[in-house]
From TrEMBL, chain A:
GO biological process: transmembrane transport
Gene3D superfamilies assigned to the protein according to its UniProt record, in alphabetical order: MetI-like
Keywords, sorted A to Z: Cell membrane, Membrane, Transmembrane, Transmembrane helix, Transport
Membrane-crossing residue ranges in chain numbering: 31-52, 108-131, 143-161, 173-195, 226-247, 284-302
GO CC annotations on file: plasma membrane
Family: Belongs to the binding-protein-dependent transport system permease family.
Main location: membrane
Subcellular location: Cell membrane
Membrane topology: Multi-pass membrane protein
Name of the protein in its database record: ABC transporter permease
Organism of this sequence: Harenicola maris
Pfam families: BPD_transp_1, OppC_N
Residue ranges of every copy of the ABC transmembrane type-1 domain listed in the record: 103-302
Domain of life assignment: Bacteria
UniProtKB/TrEMBL annotation, chain B:
Membrane topology: Peripheral membrane protein
Domain of life assignment: Bacteria
A Pfam family recorded for this sequence: ABC_tran
Gene Ontology terms, MF aspect: ATP binding; ATP hydrolysis activity
This protein's UniProt keywords: ATP-binding, Nucleotide-binding, Transport
Protein name: ATP-binding cassette domain-containing protein
One of the GO biological process terms: peptide transport
Matching NCBIfam families: oligo_HPY (TIGR01727)
Length: 316, 341
């Protein structure tokens, strides 16, 4: 026990723990490939526009309604060309450039709104679960928000705040803040309910009593003992929240209260293409695939991360 | 019963301690009352001794332990620790008191946070109480691991990687981290296998000698208490019904409840036949106690006086041996263990 080798072995080294987490994460096939895909799609939307330099909003009416290059495989009459590999829309805007630009908006809205919803939901859930006095008020408030019809609320919020935000920010930034805020404050309720339920059960566990018996403050009990143990449900609602946020944004765009009409998002590309989807199915499919693959990748990542962060599973 | 005439003042003095829980009855009747989990408990614990607190489940022994360790507020009564009142104290004093009174809990798989390593679990009290530097805490935790019979290399493991006995050792190390004076052992071995129980009990006895600890040992297992306790207190429905030295209690129990409990104790020798006293009748509703003695519904020696009169008071049978019963003189008979040839 005095030799140094034993001592260093016993040192609670946190770097090795993160190595363990990474090892377990890699072990989860879905999470590993999900992570790679997410990295790929992030690079696609972030770096892509610098490589594929065609302007996403450049109108080229002579090159309108071009089909993707692969259509030539079975339809030799199709209007295709390497200058627009994924085709163009009815105004001649390049679909590949729009997908890149739209991805930026969708990913930014999705992640920010998800994080916002998660923060509000976790805060409300933990407070309601831990402090009995707040439980009634907070959960009835949650029910209230849950029962609000979202779309009318969105329309009202947009008409109320659009002018004010646009006078301060550029149209895109103003709209971004508005959409993120609205999606964030209307989608935290499920997280709050789940977290509250888990906290209610956890705070009766003996380890919370044991923590109190050494004088741990309520704040420390929440951050050290409760939050790490509600990580799994939070992770699951996070991955679902990202999908909901991207889809809600597209619904907003569809109703014409989202981003300006010349500003593409995945959701808007998809909804814009719906009227002519029998003739040009790729305009629905490509943004649709982008949305669902991203959501799937994040779902798998959440799964893997949850397992990797749980010491009981990691040990195996 | 303030009889400690000798020099050492008790480490812990509990007098007339009460802890009631509010009970809401059904929605329709709308009545509400109190559940008297601890109802007027008085006892002393002298420094260095082990007081065994026994009773069946629901008798209030764990609640008593939690009130004494200030994890639950007291409804009424007084707790003096080293002569100072510990009920009406401010947050700072309470934090300091936490270091002096520590608890070991029943189920080590529930009382250890599954997301923390053994190191962090044992270090947590030190961090919370802001004791020592990072390096000195590390040394202390590793020493504590050895003190409770675990290897230093186990520091990085998580609770699920330990066996039940090892987990309880971590629980004990955690309780020892702050160098407490009083340890409240709330059924520390009840969740363990019998073979492991012996190891943990030996560890606790060894630690008591080495670190000069005082134990309040809560258990429902009379044979364990016989082994570890210097004095024994029997609890029934929130009250102490008998309190005596270990030898006096096991040789000569006074209260009919104690007699019945001891008659149920398994004996190592199967050839000895003995009279088992089976308690009949039901436990009274703790939220709605009957008039008179609380044990009347199950007592074999019940008289009218038990049913109508005031509750029996504590009577001293011999110095340090007290019991709460009206009919001690009539019952007075130790358990007869007749040997059959």
């Amino acid at each position: 026990m005095t030799d140094t080798a034993t001592n260093t072995a016993a040192a609670p080294a946190s770097p090795s723990r993160w190595k363990d987490v990474w090892r377990q994460y890699k072990h989860h096939k879905g999470a590993f490939y999900g992570g790679i895909f997410l990295l790929f799609i992030t690079l696609f939307v972030m770096v892509g526009p610098y490589i594929w330099t065609l302007e996403f909003d450049k109108l080229d009416i002579r090159a309108k309604d071009m089909r993707p290059i692969y259509t030539a495989l079975w339809d030799s009459d199709a209007k295709v060309g390497w200058n627009h590999p994924l085709g163009t829309d009815n105004l001649g805007r390049d679909l590949l450039a729009q997908l890149m630009q739209g991805g930026r908006a969708s990913m930014a809205v999705g992640w920010t709104a998800m994080v916002l919803a998660l923060l509000i939901g976790t805060l409300v859930g933990v407070l309601a679960g831990f402090f009995k006095a707040l439980d009634g008020i907070l959960m009835r408030f949650t029910d209230l928000v849950l029962s609000l019809p979202i779309l009318p609320l969105l329309l009202v919020a947009v008409t109320l705040f659009r002018e004010r935000l646009l006078s301060v920010f550029s149209p895109e930034t103003g709209m971004f803040i508005l959409i993120v805020a609205i999606i964030g404050v209307t989608s935290w309720m499920q997280t709050a309910r789940i977290v509250r339920g888990d906290v209610l059960a956890l705070k009766e566990r003996e380890f919370v009593l044991a923590a109190r018996s050494v004088g741990t403050s309520p704040y420390k009990i929440i951050t050290q003992h409760l939050l790490p143990n509600v990580l799994s449900p939070i992770m699951v609602s996070a991955t679902l929240g990202l999908a909901t946020a991207i889809i809600t944004e597209s619904a907003l765009s569809f109703l014409g209260v989202g981003f300006p009409s010349d500003f593409p998002t995945w959701g808007k590309l998809l909804s814009d293409a719906v009227p002519r989807m029998t003739e040009y199915p790729e305009r629905v499919m490509l943004p649709g695939i982008a949305i669902s693959m991203t959501v799937l990748a994040v779902n798998y990542m959440g799964d893997g991360l949850r397992d990797a962060l749980d010491p009981r599973i990691r040990g195996r | 019963m303030s009889q400690p005439s000798q020099a050492p003042a008790p480490l812990l003095q509990v007098s007339d301690l009460k802890r009631y829980f509010d009970v809401k009855n059904s929605l329709l009747s709308g009545k509400s009352g109190h559940l008297r989990a601890v109802d007027g408990v008085t006892f002393n614990v002298t420094a260095g001794e082990t007081l065994g607190l026994v009773g069946e489940s629901g008798c209030g022994k764990s609640t008593l332990g939690r009130v004494v360790s200030r994890l639950l507020p007291a409804t009424d009564g007084e707790i003096l620790f080293e002569g100072r009142d510990i009920i009406d104290i401010d947050r700072k004093a309470l934090l300091a008191l936490r270091a002096d009174i520590q608890s070991v809990f029943q189920d080590p798989s529930a009382s250890l946070n599954p997301r923390m390593t053994a190191f962090n679990l044992i270090a947590e009290p030190l961090v919370i109480q802001k004791i020592g530097t990072r390096a000195s805490r590390r040394d202390k935790v590793l020493d504590l691991l050895e003190t409770v019979g675990l290897r230093r290399e186990f520091a990085d493991r998580y609770p699920h990687e330990f066996s039940g006995g090892q987990r309880q050792r971590i629980g004990i190390a955690r309780a020892l981290a702050l160098d407490p004076k009083l340890l409240i052992l709330d059924e520390p071995v009840s969740a363990l296998d019998v073979s492991i129980q012996a190891q943990i009990i030996n560890l606790l006895e060894d630690l008591q000698k080495r670190l000069d600890l005082t134990y309040l040992f809560i258990s429902h297992d009379l044979s364990v208490v016989q082994h570890v306790a210097d004095r024994v207190a029997v609890m029934y429905m929130g009250q102490i019904v008998e309190l005596a030295d270990n030898e006096a209690f096991y040789a000569n129990p006074q209260h009919p409840y104690s007699i019945a409990l001891l008659s149920a104790l398994p004996l190592p020798d199967p050839t000895i036949a003995r009279k088992r006293i089976l308690l009949e009748g039901d436990l009274p509703d703790p939220a709605n106690l009957p008039q008179g003695c609380r044990f009347q519904s199950r007592c074999a020696h019940v008289t009218d006086r038990c049913r109508v009169g005031p509750e029996p008071e504590m009577q001293e049978i011999s110095p340090g041996h007290i019991a709460r019963c009206h009919n001690l003189a009539d019952i007075h008979a130790p358990i007869e263990q007749k040997q059959t040839a």
